[in-house]
Design a protein that fits this description.
Order of helices and strands: HEEEHHHHHEEEEHEHHE
Radius of gyration: 21 Å
Distance between the termini: 35 Å
Largest sheet: 5 strands, mixed
Strand order of the largest sheet: 7-6-5-8-9
Number of strands: 9
Number of helices: 9
């Protein structure tokens, strides 16, 4: 609303994420005339040098030109985590998890058991950061979270590596940029799946939804059912992403931003995309009719439009596997 009209919205009694929202009026801050308006969401902690209250979801004050857009990061939360878990002097890491590493490979190391209480405390901190502003660590956090009941030293090392990566990248932020009128507030999505990379032969789903050049929703999670093929795993990931797209489209419509066209969902599995285009049933997909009918229904209604994308260009790829520094 503010980026569209330039007016300050009022959020009295509005509680997103279970915490009150506060409007920041930049004219009250004399130390920095370039401060741009923003909404800070989270639990009130303390004040910075300008006298502005700091919050956790947007923990870094937003500075810069208005036409540059809005940014948000979790620098303060990361710094507090590094101090709390005594990793302030730890070495930096280039990636949140070693390449080809997941919960299955960590269990296979058969390392000694670790302190469950401390492990769960750090896991909670990492989960908060991953779900509020850092989709790049979502996969790594989902893998360490699977061992919350019985963690090993290998899992503890994996957790610390995530924090070491966050130490190097604590200034990374999500940036929303002003778009041309025909592209403003249009959502697009990317989905991916990693076939049976779990100890219980379950696949990993990952999806991420963008609006105004920034991610607004994402998830990296283990699928609830066992997929019998890569095509089925990709269809399940598409199914999960579609449900979130429907919700976001409904919310945007309620506030006056109805999507004029079907939301494009990019998928790097040719078989899954071609199936929705042709509707051809095969031995690989004949047993998953519920998900298929749901997808075909939403395609017919004009809600979604699956499209193929090369794996190298699929942003959701990082939500299903650990990648190297080049990716």
């Amino acid at each position: 609303y503010e980026m569209r009209t330039g007016k300050k919205p009022i959020f009295k009694g509005y509680y997103p994420f279970g915490a009150p929202a506060w409007a920041w009026r930049p004219r009250k801050i004399k130390s920095d005339a370039k401060a741009i308006p923003g909404i800070y969401v989270g639990r009130h902690q303390q004040y910075d040098e300008t006298g502005m209250p700091l919050y956790y979801v947007l923990t870094k004050p937003l500075y810069g030109k208005v036409d540059a857009g809005l940014s948000m990061c979790s620098r303060r939360k990361i710094e507090e985590a590094l101090q709390r878990f005594d990793l302030e002097n730890a070495n930096h890491k280039d990636t949140p998890m070693s390449i080809n590493t997941n919960n299955k490979s960590l269990i296979a190391m058969q390392s000694p058991a670790a302190d469950t209480k401390v492990y769960q405390q750090l896991q909670g901190t990492l989960t908060y950061i991953a779900t509020t502003s850092r989709p790049d660590i979502a996969f790594a956090v989902s893998q360490t979270g699977q061992a919350a009941a019985q963690p090993t030293q290998a899992h503890v090392s994996a957790q610390k590596r995530i924090l070491q990566y966050l130490k190097k990248t604590k200034d990374y932020s999500i940036r929303f940029q002003l778009q041309p009128q025909h592209m403003a507030n249009i959502i697009t999505a990317y989905t991916d799946a990693s076939f049976q990379n779990n100890t219980k032969f379950r696949s990993q789903s990952g999806w991420i939804i963008f609006m105004n050049n920034g991610p607004i929703a994402w998830q990296s999670s283990t699928q609830k059912t066992i997929a019998c093929s890569t095509q089925e795993a990709e269809i399940i990931a598409l199914h999960d992403c579609t449900k979130m797209i429907i919700y976001i489209r409904n919310v945007l419509q309620d506030i006056g931003y109805k999507q004029p066209n079907p939301t494009i969902i990019y998928c790097d599995n040719t078989a899954a995309v071609q199936f929705f285009e042709t509707g051809l049933k095969t031995k690989r997909n004949m047993h998953i009719q519920r998900d298929i009918h749901f997808q075909q229904q939403e395609i017919a209604k004009g809600t979604i439009l699956p499209r193929y994308i090369n794996t190298a260009d699929n942003i959701a790829d990082q939500l299903t596997k650990s990648l190297g520094t080049l990716r």
